[in-house]
Structure formats: structure tokens, C-alpha cells
Amino acid sequence: MPRFVLIATALLGLPCSATGLETTPLPALADLHLNPAPRSAAETARIEAVLAPPTQFDTPHRFEAMPAGAATVPRSPGDAAFSQPSANLAHDAKMTFHLGDAMFAKLWVSSPSSTLASDGLGPLYNARSCQRCHVNDGRGHAPEGPEDDATSMLLRLSVPAAQDDALPPIPGFHGDQPHPVYGGQLQDLGTPGQAGEYRLEVTYTEQSVTLPDGEVVQLRRPDYGLADLRYGPLGPEARISPRVAPQMIGLGLLEAIPAADILALADPQDADGDGISGRPNIVWSTEFDQPMLGRFGLKAGMPSLRAQVADAFSGDIGISSPLRPAPWGDCTAAQAACRDAPHGDGDVRSFEIAADAMDLVVFYSRNLGVPARPDAGDPQVLRGKGVFHAAGCAACHRPSFVTHRLPDQPAQSFQLIWPYTDLLLHDMGPGLADNRPEARATGREWRTPPLWGIGLTRQVSGHSQFLHDGRARSLPEAILWHGGEAERARDRVARLPTEDRNALIAFLESL
Questions:
Q1: Is the separation of the CB atoms in 253 and 87 below 8 Å?
Q2: What is the pTM of this model?
């Protein structure tokens, strides 16, 4: 399996205007890639020309129908549209991909068990496999009622750090720490003899929004109830953040975007006066023992796919790995019965999932293909693309990047990709705030989610829920929930003539 190496990126010596970073210096960041070759001046100029914003919208960009470059897969009609290997994956690598698929779908069992390679579940957990949350590698959903499945939604949990807690040397790092009793997230399931920590209850309040053209859109505001808290009340300082599982496509390509290209988009002081002030989340990497650019997770709290996978195995399933070695997962010292329960690391294994097995899941996650856009040239879609840019949506949902040249990662190497994200944090206003900081992200900030594949959500996942907590049941609802930095763009969309707004939705559904 390929391994990451670090290439130092000399950012601290540049003026703030060159990097888009705050005036408070950030630590030197490392670029997480496989021996990326430096770009020549000629290549840089060519890339800048390709990525230049469009000036006409009567024809598509010549590469736009291939959102993942050579890694783009055909757009298939079934619910497996997100489960195809990247089209440019070498033949022998496809076996590794399918082995990773099997590990992704593998159901873990509690210890002790005769199936020594599959035990170690929990003791507290949210799901028995990766696929239970990311069904068909797609988007999770919020429960619609007491009988609905809540597996693909979880609640992150934290409290402010105490004065004597050691914090990473990262300017602007928020001192939230795991809850002293319940840990970093709430688990609603437990192995035999271990009751889940709580039961999630979600209720909604409906709100009608009438647009200038007379269209009425129903928004729903969620309220989260935590019933049957096994270890007592959370306490007044507890902060919770509901999260639905995000879709899995294109993750390796997002990881292959040069860190400098992402940082160059940051404008935390809004120097250009456009109302958009994206910031990078800088997180502490236990994998490399240094600060890194956050890319993954709904608040960009994870710097690499390997870290993201290890964190999910530990927190969601209770499976230990080289990066998260605790065999009891998220159980705290206050949960003695959980820590004392049988675990799966007492046999021939050092960890409940070995490094090579976890690497298979990382490889699978890195190489899930992004479907093509056969309707990129449709007249209504092109009209909607023009509306998207005119409304200012592209200020955060940046259309395209060119990935690093990666000789050891050919499927992600030097691809023109169209993910429609800047991977930066943006203040989305009080309506979407979870009021829970994460690393440098505030309680009102979220990472811009990629939009590629968004039009296939119902086909793949069987629903049309969007945003971090699934509150939006349609794309118009999702747009109307935007606030903060996105408020101007939201209001422009709300004022659109019906035909233009329909064209915008057609464009989004074509992605």
C-alpha cells in the first residue's frame, strides 16, 4: 500500500496577502502528498488559465462533463452510482479496491468471538460497519420519526477546555475537549451487557418562507432531545453537534489538491470586500505529530483520509487501530464497565483492525469514482450555471482545481477536477450554527461541502436531505438556510424569477 510522506510548504515567510491567512502567524504547514513535483512557471500559468472563471454560459467548458478528470466514471442509473472504482484505476489496483469494499461493508461483532479477525465491536458504538452509515457510499439522513433509523446520524460532544489542559500550538485553536463522562460523541448502541449512552429524539418546527414570485417553501428547524442518558445529565457546559454521514465520492482527489491552492483562496479579513471570508481549519495531526490543513469532516477537522478513517473506526464502531489504539473506542475513564469489557486486541492482534486492513479501507475511500455529467451542455443547465455564478455561489463553492502530480498515486495525479468547494470554513449564520467549536472552526463555521454528485442523492440514498444535519428536504430548502457569509447569495437566489431559479436547481442536479 502507498504511504504518505510530508513535503514542507514554506508559508510562514510569505506576506499575509499572499497566503490569505490571518495576521497572527500560523505554524508551518505540511503538504500531505506523495512526492509532489513543484510546478513550473509555465505549468502554473496554464493551470491558472484553465481555472479562470467562465465569461460565457452558452456552451460548457470542454472538460466540465468529466468532474473527476480521467477518474470520472459513467453515470449509472442504479443506487450503486457512487460505488464504482475510479475509471483510471489500474487493473491490479482494482483488486485492492474490492478488498477495501469488503472491509468497508464488514460487520464487526463483540468480543470474545470465534471470528478473531472481526471481533472488537464497541463496547459502545453507533454502527457495526462503515457501510451502515454511508449506505451505497452516499449521504446519511436524519430520522423522520421515532420509528426511523438513526444509524447514519450522530451527535458530536465536547466541553470547553480547563485552564490546565494542554492545547496544540495553533493560533486561534479552540479549547474544546471530549466530555469527561460521555466522550467525543454519543453512542446509542452497546454490545451485550452494555446499554447505549442515550436515545436520539428529533422533532421539527415548520416555517413558511414566501419568495417574491409567490412560491412558498417550507423550512423545518430541528430540535434534538437526548433521552435515557445512561450516565446522568450532560451538564450545562456540554456542546452537541448533530452530523449526518457525508457522501464518499472523490475523497482522494480532494486530498490531492495542493494545500497552497486551498490556502490561497482564504480571505479571513475579507480584503476584497465581497462579504466572503473563508478560513482554513488548522488541526493537530496525531499521524504526523504536527499542525496540518484540515480537509475532511463537516468542519474540516481531519487532515487526511487515513486520520478520518481511523477516527470513524474508533468513535463510530469502537475498533482500535494504529492511529487510535484504545480498544474501548470512545469510552471514558468514567465508564469503567465499558473499559473493563472484553476487547478484540488480546489475541494475536495488536489492534482490532490492523494497519494493512485499515489501509484497504483508506484505499477504497480514496478511489470511489465521481459520476460524469452527461447534461452539462443542456441549455437549461447552462442557464443555471450562469445564475450560479451571478448569484455569487461560486465564491465558496469554487468549481475546479488541478491536483498535484503524484507518481505513486496515478489515479489522483494531475487531474482537472470540478468538486465545487474551497474546503475552507465559512460563517453560515445563526440559523445553521451548532455553537460547538472544532479546532479553529467556530460554532457558526462549516467547511464548504463539495457539490459533485449532489443531483444523485435520491437515486443513491433514497432521500433528498441536505446540510450537515439533514434538515433540508430539497435543494431550495438548503439554499434558503444559508446565512452569514452566504446571505447575499441566498437573497439573490430568493429574488430570482421562477425560470432562473428552476434553471439553478437543474444545474445543481446535473452535478
A1: no
A2: 0.93
